[in-house]
Design goal:
It is globular and about 60 Å long. The longest helix has 28 residues. The strands form 5 sheets. A 5-stranded parallel sheet has the order 4-16-15-14-13. A 5-stranded parallel sheet has the order 5-6-7-11-12. The protein has a single domain, classed as Queuine tRNA-ribosyltransferase-like (TIM Barrel, Alpha-Beta Barrel), CATH 3.20.20.105. It has 376 residues and is α/β, with parallel strands linked by helices. It contains 14 helices and 18 strands. Helix 6 packs across helix 7 and helix 12 crosses helix 13.
Length: 376
Amino acid sequence: MKFTVESTDPQSDARAGCLETDHGSIQTPIFMPVGTAGTVKALHFNDLKDIVRARIILGNTYHLYTRPGIEIIEEAGGLHRFIGWDKPVLTDSGGYQVYSLADSRKLTENGVTFQSHIDGSKHTFTPESVIDIQRSIGGDIIMAFDECPPFQSTRDYVDNSMQLTHRWLTRCMTRFNETVPRYGFGQSLFPIIQGGAFKDLRAKSAETIAEAGADGNAIGGLSVGEPEEVMYEMTSLVCKILPEDKPRYLMGVGTPVNLLQSISLGVDMFDCVMPTRNGRNGMIFTSHGIMNMKNEKWKHDFSPVDEDGVLPPERTCSKAFLRHLIISGEMLGAMLASLHNLAFYLWLMEQAREKIAAGEFSHWKERMIKELSQRL
């Protein structure tokens, strides 16, 4: 994998770059649609490619491990062939899902033992097994195994958790270096910064991760309940420590405003379930603000969903019709809302990239944030 910074913004730390993988190039900044179980909910892959124009999608190690199972994915020849997606894939390590299973897990130095949410069966993830599983899944970018401490954890807990994540990283990198990709294309391992909301711990973790010399680096443990200003403070802190010639991935973030603010701090890559999950529940993101399509005010509004929209369906789909679909629980409502939101997120990334290249990002960002923050 190769990453090149192509443009920088003179008034912020925003940058535009190109991430090259064996499954194609990714222009950054980039948002990655979340395909938890090998599919981005409610969307066909043709729509992801042709309308959303997704450059890379994310797969979830925990969910793919539990269903359909690694054996099926191996038999298919890896996740790309199993799902029919010929562009890059990033797989997370399953650490966040294990974090969310706090009531049914046991955390030790060796790894995490947990119960499947499907049938209650017991399984163990270790740093070594997580690398092996991700080798079998076949992501272009794979993540190191980490522990994500809950927000408002004590300093001692966060410190111990961070040090455990660092020890696990050493084991992940050892296993990664002693194994080879299974399907004829390269894979890159990204370590994950932790440290909660404690500045010194975040800095220490960023320094440790930077010293690992991986192809790229991820910022984890944010967007887990902390105030936005804390998220930005921690992101800014670690971006100033991480190497400039490696991509920076802020995990699980967030709203369009979060994305623009984080780009200005030096982040290159994002993922979040918000555009699809919230879309299925009637929240529509537009360049003029956020719409709740369940509101009565849209019932008689036959204008396009987004009059400045980037989607072909918006030329024929009215607010009233989309509201009807969502209120009625029709599958088409979830499809159109998800399609719109993801296309909007990817459009926003393209606009940010263009403004960075033109040296206009900071001014444009401030204007866009005012628009994006409105409730329509």
